Amino acid sequence: MTEEIIIAGFGGQGVLSMGKILAYSGIMQDKEVSWMPSYGPEMRGGTANVTVILSDERISSPYLKMYDTAIILNQQSMDKFEKSVKPDGVLLYDPNGISHHPTRKDIKIYQIEGMKLAAEMGNKKIFNMVVLGAFLKIKPVIKLENVTDGLKKSLSERYHHLIPLNKEAIIKGLGSVSVYNVEEQAFHI
Questions:
Q1: 56: how many CB neighbours lie within 10 A of its CB?
Q2: What's the pTM?
Q3: Using CA atoms, how far apart are residues 148 and 81, in angstroms rounded to an integer?
Q4: What is the pLDDT of residue 20?
Q5: Is 183 contained in some domain?
């Protein structure tokens, strides 16, 4: 099994940390892992993306042009990466701030109202964990207990008290993802 993922959005949305947590979680599950971030000099507010590869075999290169899964968190990233999803691949996105929804019919498309759900949970900073939960519902490539271990590894110890909240956000995402029909009909899975 090899899963090649691009996570893309604005700096400050937790894009890089979501990738880092996914990578550490893969290590906890004895996977071969690659984590390659990319961001502009402006960071917060600018665009950021990270490529994560999880595999049972050695990873020959972290550089990819096509992905099994794209997790998209803003319009600029949708414009750039929708076309980079492999046929039969997955595109997961938060519709908040998206004006041009995906149009491809050769991929599976899902929505998660991550920002809305995080706000309802009282902490917008857990947005990325809601989205991570949605991804793990669609593609359960990492076990939840390994994600908890990944959180412990990737968060500095002074933030470990937030791990239960992050876990709650992941569980919220697991139960809140919807299939997106290109004809603009969404229904719950």
A1: 11
A2: 0.92
A3: 29
A4: 94
A5: no
